[in-house]
What does this fold into?
Amino acid sequence: MTNAVADRLAELNARYDTAEPAEIIRALIHDEFPGRIALVSSFGTESAVLLHMLSQASLDAPVVFLDTGKLFGETKRYRDKLVETLGLTGVQSIAPDPAALAARDPRGVLWSTNPDACCALRKVEPLQRALKPYDAWFTGRKAFQAGTRATLPVFESEGEKFKINPLAHWTKEDIEAYFEEHDLPRHPLEADGYLSIGCMPCTDRVEPGEDARAGRWRGSDKTECGIHMPIGQVLAKANA
It folds into this structure.
């Protein structure tokens, strides 16, 4: 982290330390990073909350959706429903590079032999390309989702870019209350026990009492796809 990034990060933390998520989103879109910030959304079970807040601040704000080619059909239909319901006009679906897929996963089964390499190919690399025009991005991560996210801050930096987690300190109860207050539609797989939804081959139902993300890459020590990890660490894991 450069001194300039560290200073800017400290400034953002000081200015918005006690601000509500919707206030943070509005301020960063219009005042701090006008035209230079995007929301990255999986359109998963809790995504409607952040997307609704974004829609209240700017209907045409950029929203990046990673279409890995391995998603549940329900997720893509839910994306379309939320886009229509909220009136979002800035959603862009980003796919993996076809040449890279042909070279590194020609049979489409890389997820079964090297899930880290599959995530790098289908999520991390496409996201890096999609975020090139922006200085900052919003994520929907929350501290309660898993033990690995327990100390999640609202503001982070990754290289020269800023990463903002507006809902970092919200509880599951806060999320549920927001859904009810704004009558937001639910992901169709949630009622079937899928509490954190990624790619179809690597997502399982969650048992009562488990972390919300326990169904991701079940049976392995993998806990993150890699988009929230330093790129060097992602590549090292993918090539291990």
The first strand starts at residue 37 and ends at 40. The mean pLDDT is 91.
